């Protein structure tokens, strides 16, 4: 009996805290109704693999892959990634040749990837509460199919997927807003962009979301500088630290305590 009273008391305290957080957040953040997820480095732990793919190709031509070039590439379409790599690293090959090698290496190395911390929990929570959400990734549809092959059930609950490297409606990649505007338009109710919350890890993606008129939660790599976080509405360490109620979304359930 006393144990039950303690659980109820703790639940009341936590709900009070959640309500207080929501009240404060209302002044700082706007309530949203739809969510848009990036994929690489945000939901799937792929960025180190991509980094090694480009690094290995650069080494093949006797070049290194410095951090500043990686930051220019992060979040871009596959074609744009190859253009930047060839031009910035001054590689002795055509963009087409590099692109062909890059695509094949991606298909060979991206099948066994892990989910990022908190990704599955957040996706299942939004799905349970019928919050519409979609994917907006710079990758091609072929690449996405490979990367998500071990998580088909989880990714089947997304309303739709916009793959920037192969979608004809995405004219320009991130930092342009195209991919996020296309993503919003393809929801059944085509919400105003201001009603969409984007989750991103890359500075280029944050710039694109901001340009689209959307709020963006950034989960950055540890090497991202404070200046590169400036376009984010909110910066968190990982998805486990996200509090949905801050943006007017259903809060995570309160765990029972003894």
From TrEMBL:
UniProt keyword annotations, A-Z: Hydrolase, Magnesium, Metal-binding
Substrates-to-products reaction catalysed: psi-UMP + H2O = pseudouridine + phosphate
Entry cofactors: Mg(2+)
MF-aspect GO terms: metal ion binding; pseudouridine 5'-phosphatase activity
EC number, UniProt record: 3.1.3.96
Entries under NCBIfam families matching the protein: HAD-SF-IA-v3
Family: Belongs to the HAD-like hydrolase superfamily. CbbY/CbbZ/Gph/YieH family.
Protein name: pseudouridine 5'-phosphatase
Organism annotation: Polypedilum vanderplanki (Sleeping chironomid midge)
Taxonomic lineage: Eukaryota, Metazoa, Ecdysozoa, Arthropoda, Hexapoda
């Amino acid at each position: 009996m006393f144990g039950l009273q303690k659980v109820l008391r703790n639940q009341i305290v936590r709900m009070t805290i959640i309500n207080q957080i929501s009240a404060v957040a209302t002044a700082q953040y706007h309530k949203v109704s739809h969510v848009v997820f990036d994929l690489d480095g945000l939901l799937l732990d792929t960025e180190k693999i991509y980094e090694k793919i480009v690094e290995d190709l650069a080494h093949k031509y006797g070049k290194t892959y410095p951090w500043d070039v990686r930051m220019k590439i992060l979040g871009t379409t596959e074609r744009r990634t190859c253009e930047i790599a060839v031009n910035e690293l001054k590689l002795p090959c055509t963009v087409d040749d590099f692109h062909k090698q890059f695509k094949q290496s991606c298909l060979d190395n991206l099948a066994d990837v892990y989910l990022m911390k908190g990704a599955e929990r957040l996706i299942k929570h939004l799905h349970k509460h019928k919050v519409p959400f979609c994917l907006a990734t710079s990758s091609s549809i072929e690449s996405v199919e490979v990367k998500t092959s071990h998580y088909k059930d989880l990714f089947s609950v997304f309303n739709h997927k916009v793959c920037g490297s192969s979608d004809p409606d995405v004219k320009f990649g991130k930092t342009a807003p195209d991919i996020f505007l296309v993503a919003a338009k393809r929801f059944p109710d085509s919400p105003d962009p201001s009603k969409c919350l984007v989750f991103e890890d890359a500075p280029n993606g944050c710039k694109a979301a901001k340009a689209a008129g959307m709020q963006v939660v950034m989960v950055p790599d540890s090497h991202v500088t404070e200046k590169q976080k400036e376009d984010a509405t909110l910066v968190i360490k990982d998805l486990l630290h996200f509090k949905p109620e801050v943006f007017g979304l259903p809060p995570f359930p309160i765990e029972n305590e003894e």
